[in-house]
Amino acid sequence: MKKFLLIIAAVIAANAGAHAQDRFKISLSDVHDEFATVEAEITVENGRLFTGGGGSYDWQRGWADFIQGFEANTLGGATLNVSQRGESFESYWYLESGGDAYNGVAKVNYQIDLVYAHTDWDFGNEQAGKVYKEAIYTVTKPFFLSTGSDRETEITFEIPREWKIAAPWTRIGDNRFVADNWEELDNNAITLGIFQSVSGTAQGFDLEIILMGDFSSATSLVTETLDQVLPVYLDIFPTTKPEKYMMFYLRGQSEDAEAFRNGAAFTTSLALSADNRIFWADFLAHELFHFWNGTRIRAKNRADGNWFSEGITDYYANLVLVNRGVLSEDWFIRRMENIFGNYLYFQFAGAFEGLSVLEAGKEKGRNRFGVYDAGWVLAFALDDKILTETGGAKSLDDVMQVIFERFGETGRNYELEELLSTISQASGVNLDPFFDQYLKKREALPLVEIMNSFGMESYSNNYANEYYMTKDANASPEKQDKWCFLISERFSK
Question: Domains, the chain, ranges and CATH?
Answer without folding.
Answer: 20-113+143-179 (2.60.40.3650), 302-489 (no CATH)
